[in-house]
Specification:
Structural class: alpha/beta
Number of helices: 16
Strand content: 15-25%
Strand order of the largest sheet: 3-4-5-2-1-6
Order of helices and strands: EEHEEEHEHHHHHEHEEHEHHHEEHHHH
Largest sheet: 6 strands, mixed
Number of strands: 12
Shape: flat
């Protein structure tokens, strides 16, 4: 564990609730002088004589001026969030009142807290390890049930507990191996190599599972971008409106109505999808604005996590026979022939797009729209879905297909899920070092080399939980927190 940072002995203050007008605003004070400083303003009681974990109502006064009538929540260290003496002041939510209270505390000797400093002190005082501390920020930023559940699991120590158990067992083996070095002349073996081999195998399996969970964790934390692409007038904007269940995009029968990308967020079964309605893609257009829209559509398609390729099922799936006989008046033979040619061309275009997406390894869904205009339409591709965006037909099936494509059978409730990129990169180093240890055991390496390899693994495990870190790294991590937390 690191020593205390410079300034840790200060008493800090910050607004813990979002700025702006509200019914209540909470000001948090933490540090060795918290009770004394707030006590100068709280004239109703002697705070030094009050017990921890109690509430007190009274006036805050700055000299003769009454600042507000407040509720104080008292927490004496180490039984507090930061491990220090903490007081939370619940004021009326006027920005003017809150600022006056904070200024009065600054005049009393407090210092404005830096971003994340309360949680940083909780880490330095051993109330949280680093993985738990980072989960606090994730919980604050969570916007779905899945992201909140994952953050709570990590914050309560689920992830850290698995790593700590592994680390303690490795430390035990490392100590026994190093003990052997002290008795090298007597050719004794204190560390059971078979048990160590078994432990390394278990650790490799656990690490592989955690690394594999990062894909789902990244989805839970950051959401999934979905580009809805296709030719003009395929119904992309109508589909966006159907998915959102509101009229977000302008819809018309005129091809090329959407000139720029439109982005909206949709929560489906706890997964956040960023839906991108793109301009219709066609090879030749003289409209300069439409050309720019097509360019942006191609960029969004490349950057998206998932591509929904929408095509006109009434053009691609209508058979020549139905085209010739449908409607009140039969089409002429030439019209039927033209319809058949257009159908073949549309199917060929869809097949070409599908082949390109498969080649790039881009997750995708082929969606045939306007089946309400294509009676008797049948699926032509194994990964195709037929819908009618205008009539909201099979929209729920499309949503489930999107979720299935992302989760691939996984679930946010399946134990520990890695959502933090820093943890993921450290786990990659852990996996590499475990492979080295495994190879060393296979090759019957001497104890001093095995011990060195185990130390490397312990170092990377310690980086995740904060047993091994630097002051600069801590400053960077906690600087991304909000003020007041």
């Amino acid at each position: 564990m690191l020593g205390k940072l410079v300034g840790w002995e200060d008493t800090i203050v910050a607004l813990a609730t979002p700025p702006g007008v509200g019914a209540i605003g909470v000001i948090r004070v933490s540090g060795p002088q918290a009770f004394a400083m707030v006590g100068k303003l709280f004239v109703s009681k002697d705070l030094a004589a009050q017990a921890s974990h109690t509430l007190h109502v009274g006036l805050l006064k700055d000299g003769a001026d009454v600042l507000d009538e407040v509720v104080l929540s008292l927490f004496r260290g180490p039984r507090s969030y930061t491990g220090e003496d903490v007081i939370e002041i619940s004021c009326h939510g006027s920005p003017y009142i809150l600022e006056r209270v904070i200024q009065a505390l600054l005049h009393a000797g407090a210092r404005l807290a830096r971003a994340g400093e309360f949680t940083q002190r909780a880490f330095l005082n051993g109330r949280l390890d680093l993985a738990q501390a980072e989960a606090v920020a994730d919980l604050i930023a969570s916007n779905t049930a899945a992201s909140a559940q994952t953050a709570i699991h990590t914050m309560r120590g689920g992830f850290s507990r698995e790593l700590r158990e592994l680390r303690e067992r490795l430390i035990s083996f490392s100590a026994l191996i190093e003990l052997e070095l002290d008795f090298s002349q007597e050719d004794v073996e204190f560390a059971d190599r078979t048990a160590l081999y078994r432990l390394i195998t278990e650790a490799e399996e656990m690490t592989t599972s955690l690394l594999a969970s990062f894909r789902l964790g990244n989805v839970i934390r950051n959401g999934v971008s979905v580009a809805i692409v296709g030719k003009p007038n395929a119904g992309k904007s109508t589909l966006l409106n159907a998915l959102l269940n509101e009229d977000r995009a302008i819809v018309s029968e005129i091809a090329g109505t959407t000139r720029d990308t439109i982005e909206e967020v949709l929560n489906i079964d706890g997964v956040l999808f960023r839906l991108i309605d793109t301009a219709g893609i066609r090879q030749h257009t003289a409209d300069v604005i439409e050309q720019m829209g097509v360019g942006r559509s191609l960029e969004k398609m490349e950057a998206a996590d998932i591509v929904v390729y929408l095509f006109d099922a009434s053009a691609a799936l209508a058979s020549p026979a139905s085209a010739a006989s449908g409607g009140a008046a039969a089409l002429s033979a030439s019209t039927a022939s033209a319809s058949a040619a257009a159908s073949v061309e549309e199917i060929a275009a869809v097949a070409a797009v599908r082949e390109e997406l498969v080649r790039k390894g881009k997750p995708f869904l082929l969606v045939g729209n306007k089946v309400d205009l294509a009676q008797g339409a049948t699926v032509r591709f194994p990964d195709e879905l037929l819908i009618s965006a205008r009539e909201h037909r099979h929209i729920d099936v499309l949503k489930q297909r999107l979720v299935d494509l992302v989760l691939q059978g996984a679930s946010a409730g399946d134990g520990t899920i890695v959502t933090n990129a820093r943890h993921y990169h450290a786990l990659q180093s852990v996996a590499t070092s475990l492979t080295v240890i495994h190879r060393g055991l296979d090759e019957l390496l001497p104890g001093d080399l095995l011990s060195l390899d185990i130390r490397h693994c312990l170092h990377y495990l310690g980086e995740i939980t904060g047993e091994i870190t630097t002051e600069d790294r801590l400053d960077y991590i906690f600087s991304k927190f909000c003020i007041g937390k």
